[in-house]
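Journal club prep, shared notes

We agreed each person brings one worked example of a sequence with its structure written out as tokens. Mine is Peptide deformylase. I'm keeping it raw so we can talk through how to read the token line rather than staring at a rendered picture. Sequence first:
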Amino acid sequence: MKLNIVEYPNKKLREISKEVDKFDEKLHQLLDAMYDVMMNSNGIGLAAIQVSHAKRVLIINIPDDDSEQSKENLIEMINPIIVNKDGEIVYQEGCLSVPSFYEDISRYDNITVNFQDRDANTKTLDACGLLSVAIQHEIDHLNGVLFIDKLSYSRRKKFEKEYKRMQKEKKISK
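Then the structure, token by token:
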């Protein structure tokens, strides 16, 4: 399965993802292909909508203390729901769908998420810090929300201007 990352301002990123009800080989192939795309793009998280699949599916692989992302640490979440949240953390976020742009975003520091794994088993995960931030970021994608939507009005206007300039420069250099 060949997947490509959808980049802002593509309207597909605003689509609300649908709940998964079939836990079959096609889902497993999507998860495996998403992992390859995420790793090849140096990402730590990826939502299915970012590769044009409007399904409530996301993967996360936080680097360990040695900055390695071993597959054993991969988290696959299907139909995730945040059931508890508290605290606040500000983290500099980036996004594979908004390349080369990073901004401080405020999120909940501690969350509890209910989800299903690739075999439809129900799981619960307590997350804090970067893992909490990454899960919230990816769940936002499933709801058609991008991290840039959380910027203040003035910062968003500045982003739009910078991003258009970067896109122009990218086209010129091709």
